[in-house]
Amino acid sequence: MTELLKVRNLEAWYGESHILHGVEFVIHPGEVVALLGRNGAGKTTTLKSIMGIVSRRTGAIAFEGRDLINLTSDRIARLGIAFCPEERG
Question: Looking at residues 36-57, what average pLDDT do you find?
């Protein structure tokens, strides 16, 4: 089965704080996926890392077979991935 989004061994930091530790998942075309967890579990950081919004990240992120880990967020958005945060205001 074709992989739409593949994340392997994703690590992310905010400054010196190591937030994500080895996140891995695969999403196939047509699947609906939910990322669940308590406050502070890393849900938003995972999404921001995929989008390239978190400046320090390592691992492998592929969208439709294309490596994203070294791309800027604007280039990632042009490939078809978006991050729409919920605002509390």
Answer: 93
Could you tell me how many residues make up the chain?
Answer: 89
Torsion of CA 70, 54, 50, 80, to 10 degrees: -80
Q: State the pLDDT at residue 89.
A: 60
HEC assignment per residue over 13-71: EECCEEEEEEEEEEECCCCCCCCCCCCCCCHHHHHHHHHCCCCEEEEEEEECCEECCCC
d(CA 59, CA 41): 19
Q: Structure pTM?
A: 0.89
CA distance 88 to 13: 24
Cα distances (angstroms) measured from residue 79 to each of 3, 5, 44, 54, 60 = 15, 12, 20, 18, 16
DSSP, res 78: H
Residue 86 and residue 83: Cα distance in Å, rounded? 10
